[in-house]
């Protein structure tokens, strides 16, 4: 039986919000002070999120508050139906590649009681320290990809996973990459002609790919060889995967 890999981004893809933005509602008045807002461009994503978690902790947010806040975020429409189908079909493997963090992702997946088994969750490792403050580290530190943040090149992660599977004897007939953001462009460029990229309509990846199609920017369009299927709901993706499971 042919095997397929479904690789998902998390924020604004599996869930219908950005978890790293959503958590800011726990800050006093739901706002960050200017000195933290300015941190992102100076120090990068991990230091920025780490300072947000410290600020929430300093202002009284407990582990239970943070986890409850994450539980509020809904799955994106149609994702439960998609995952119910692909987890039962027997020919799909699933991974998540996300610049969120392991605490948020594991908690949200548990909240929604998804039956799907993830073959890998590639994200920034996080944990609550003894004082109850959420802490996180970068997934890796990279200097080879200008399309990605220092702490996460999703294309590198996807390629490594597929290579590791190949060494264990599994060659995917198609890889399906589902995402929405700028950092989903790099993994999209790793895909082959028999693969699919699913950019979410109205979000950055969709705009980038549309722009690439017209203007060959920000990278050479010839680098994107996968088939492009835009989506608004997980049900749009389900239509495509149903055709695979019949093969
Ligand atoms: Mg996203």
From TrEMBL:
<dbReference type="InterPro" id="IPR016965">
    <property type="entry name" value="Pase_PHOSPHO-typ"/>
</dbReference>
<dbReference type="InterPro" id="IPR023214">
    <property type="entry name" value="HAD_sf"/>
</dbReference>
<feature type="binding site">
    <location>
        <position position="11"/>
    </location>
    <ligand>
        <name>Mg(2+)</name>
    </ligand>
</feature>
<dbReference type="GO" id="GO:0046872">
    <property type="term" value="F:metal ion binding"/>
</dbReference>
<feature type="binding site">
    <location>
        <position position="180"/>
    </location>
    <ligand>
        <name>Mg(2+)</name>
    </ligand>
</feature>
<feature type="binding site">
    <location>
        <position position="99"/>
    </location>
    <ligand>
        <name>substrate</name>
    </ligand>
</feature>
<dbReference type="Pfam" id="PF06888">
    <property type="entry name" value="Put_Phosphatase"/>
</dbReference>
<feature type="binding site">
    <location>
        <position position="20"/>
    </location>
    <ligand>
        <name>substrate</name>
    </ligand>
</feature>
<keyword id="KW-0460">Magnesium</keyword>
<feature type="active site" description="Proton donor">
    <location>
        <position position="11"/>
    </location>
</feature>
<keyword id="KW-0378">Hydrolase</keyword>
<comment type="similarity">
    <text>Belongs to the HAD-like hydrolase superfamily. PHOSPHO family.</text>
</comment>
<keyword id="KW-0479">Metal-binding</keyword>
<dbReference type="GO" id="GO:0016791">
    <property type="term" value="F:phosphatase activity"/>
</dbReference>
<protein>
    <submittedName>
        <fullName>Pyridoxal phosphate phosphatase PHOSPHO2</fullName>
    </submittedName>
</protein>
<feature type="binding site">
    <location>
        <position position="9"/>
    </location>
    <ligand>
        <name>Mg(2+)</name>
    </ligand>
</feature>
<dbReference type="InterPro" id="IPR036412">
    <property type="entry name" value="HAD-like_sf"/>
</dbReference>
<feature type="active site" description="Nucleophile">
    <location>
        <position position="9"/>
    </location>
</feature>
<dbReference type="InterPro" id="IPR006384">
    <property type="entry name" value="HAD_hydro_PyrdxlP_Pase-like"/>
</dbReference>
């Amino acid at each position: 039986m042919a095997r397929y890999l479904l690789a998902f981004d998390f924020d604004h893809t599996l869930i219908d919000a950005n978890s790293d933005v959503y958590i800011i509602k726990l800050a006093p008045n739901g706002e960050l002070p200017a000195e933290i807002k300015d941190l992102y461009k100076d120090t990068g994503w991990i230091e920025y999120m780490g300072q947000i978690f410290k600020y929430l902790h300093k202002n009284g947010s407990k582990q239970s508050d943070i986890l409850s806040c994450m539980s509020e975020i809904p799955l994106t429409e149609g994702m439960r139906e998609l995952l119910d189908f692909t987890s039962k079909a027997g020919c799909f493997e699933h991974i998540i590649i996300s610049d969120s963090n392991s605490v948020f992702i594991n908690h949200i997946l548990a909240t929604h009681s998804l039956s799907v088994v993830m073959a890998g969750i590639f994200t920034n490792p996080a944990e609550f320290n003894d004082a109850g403050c959420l802490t996180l580290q970068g997934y890796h530190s990279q200097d080879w990809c200008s399309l990605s943040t220092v702490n996460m090149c999703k294309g590198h992660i996807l390629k490594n996973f597929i290579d590791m599977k190949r060494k264990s004897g599994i060659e995917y007939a198609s890889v399906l990459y589902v995402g929405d953001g700028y950092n989903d462009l790099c993994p999209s460029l790793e895909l082959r002609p028999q693969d699919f990229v699913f950019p979410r309509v109205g979000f950055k990846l969709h705009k980038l790919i549309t722009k690439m199609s017209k203007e060959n920017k920000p990278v050479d369009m010839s680098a994107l060889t996968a088939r492009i299927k835009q989506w608004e709901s997980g049900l749009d993706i389900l239509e495509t995967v149903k055709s695979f499971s019949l093969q």
